[in-house]
Design goal:
single chain, about 425 residues, alpha/beta, Leucine-rich repeat, LRR (right-handed beta-alpha superhelix), 14-stranded parallel beta sheet, 14 helices, 19 strands, elongated, F-box_dom
Length: about 425
């Protein structure tokens, strides 16, 4: 190879094949690059300097924050200030994680300024994760931002102004460790386009009143106060409902029971339902359940926390199953059990407790299984009434018991294709 040919090969290898791509393609590539590395592309050429500066998504997440471990708080502040100062155009997506960086209230004004800047630049997707002290109060700029379609907040104080017109374009709202402080008697949030609402580890949810007629997904988990469900009565499009609450059912919960019953009955589109043992206890306290056959005709996935030492739990769970003719997936989390209740054993051993076949049921999972007689009879009942069953997974809470395994294998099965898996329980917290 002569000198001219070598020069041609080198020049060919150094050809820039990326800069000529359409801007939307380049932006898509930058989505997968950390901000620190994306900023370095600005030194490639004059064109790349402006490509990075106009990139509409700024993700300053945990990965970005890790670069400042062991450094001064001012270094983090200066870096974020520089990124925002150099940016040109709209900021469609902004993610900010300040955990462990700002721990004093005197620093919150800095976050307020950053939020004000992005809300003035057309932000649609905003994620803010602050330290775990729950003291950062959201600035008014968030409540006044009309462009928001996605809002995710962690460890904040949610205190809307009065009056508050709501989030008119918000589609998804995810709140974790958030404390609601009402301006009046209730914390009213009007979000006519809201489709997804997640409330996890929140406080003050008893003051929450969300007006969202188009809501489809509602998740309420591990919060410190009860969620008043009355405001969701007009949400006829709910397809996913997950409710978990660490509380105690007492005589004061009658109104809560009635409201939850009405919500279930008035949710004709419900497809996925998860209730922990608190809500099963709440609903099962009624002597005569309100549910009728085919009430939950769209429901295909049911996850319940069950106390097998209580007749009311077992009878209500079977009532729910009977009311779900299209149920395909059933997940039972054993909350407690006992072999002392003869009435429960007699009830489960009676064919009339579940006369109808579960024609659509294909998958069953039971975790925290402790091999009580009530649990074994429940498994036997499901196997004998599920002609379409493909797989049943039983996760034993203690070590595997060979005698129990043999007994499970001997249970008659309505489905010739049904496989039974019996193993040691591992808490993966996945439905």
């Amino acid at each position: 190879m002569n000198q001219d040919e070598t020069r041609c090969v080198i020049e060919g290898d150094s050809e820039d094949r990326i800069s000529g791509l359409p801007k939307n393609v380049i932006d898509h590539i930058l989505e997968f690059i950390p901000v620190k590395d994306a900023a370095r592309t600005s030194i490639l050429s004059r064109k790349w300097r402006y490509i990075w500066a106009t990139f509409p998504e700024l993700v300053l997440d945990n990965g970005f924050r890790q670069n400042f471990i062991g450094k001064l708080k001012s270094d983090f502040t200066e870096a974020v200030n520089c990124i925002l100062l150099l940016h040109m155009g709209d900021i469609v997506k902004f993610v900010l994680d300040t955990k462990g960086v700002f721990t004093a209230k005197s620093s919150y004004a800095i976050i307020d300024r950053w939020i004000l800047y992005v809300t003035r630049n057309g932000v649609k997707m905003l994620t803010l994760r602050t330290s775990n002290d729950d003291t950062y109060t959201l600035p008014l700029s968030i409540f006044n931002c009309s462009t928001l379609t996605y809002l995710e907040l962690s460890n904040c104080v949610f205190k809307p102004p009065n009056p508050f017109i709501g989030f008119q374009n918000l589609i998804a709202l995810h709140l974790k460790g958030t404390t609601f402080v009402p301006a009046t008697s209730f914390c009213v949030i009007k979000a006519p386009l809201l489709a997804k609402l997640d409330l996890i580890l929140c406080r003050g949810t008893q003051y929450l009143n969300i007006v969202s007629p188009g809501l489809k997904f509602l998740v309420f988990r591990d919060s410190h106060s009860y969620l008043v469900l009355d405001c969701f009565m007009n949400c006829k499009n709910i397809t996913l409902l997950k409710l978990e609450f660490n509380g105690v059912v007492d005589d004061r919960t009658n109104d809560k029971r009635s409201t939850l019953e009405k919500l279930l009955v008035s949710s004709p589109a419900l497809e996925v339902l998860r209730l922990d043992s608190f809500f099963v206890e709440l609903l099962s306290a009624r002597i005569v359940p309100n549910l009728q056959p085919s009430t939950l005709s769209c429901l295909w996935h049911l996850h319940l926390g069950v106390d097998f030492s209580k007749m009311c739990h077992i009878s209500y769970v079977l009532q729910l199953i009977k009311s779900s003719p299209n149920l395909r997936k059933l997940h039972i989390s054993v909350h407690a059990t006992s072999d002392d209740a003869e009435a429960i054993l007699k009830y489960l051993d009676t064919p009339s407790c579940l006369e109808q076949p579960l024609d659509k049921l294909e998958h069953v999972a039971i975790n925290c299984f402790s091999s009580s007689k009530a649990e074994l009879l429940f498994v036997k009942l499901l196997l004998s009434r599920s002609p379409s069953l493909l797989k049943m997974c039983i996760d034993q809470l203690a070590d595997i018991d060979i005698d129990i395994a043999l007994e499970l294998m001997r249970f008659p099965r309505a489905s010739p294709r049904a496989e039974l898996f019996y193993s040691r329980y591992k808490d993966n917290s996945v439905i």
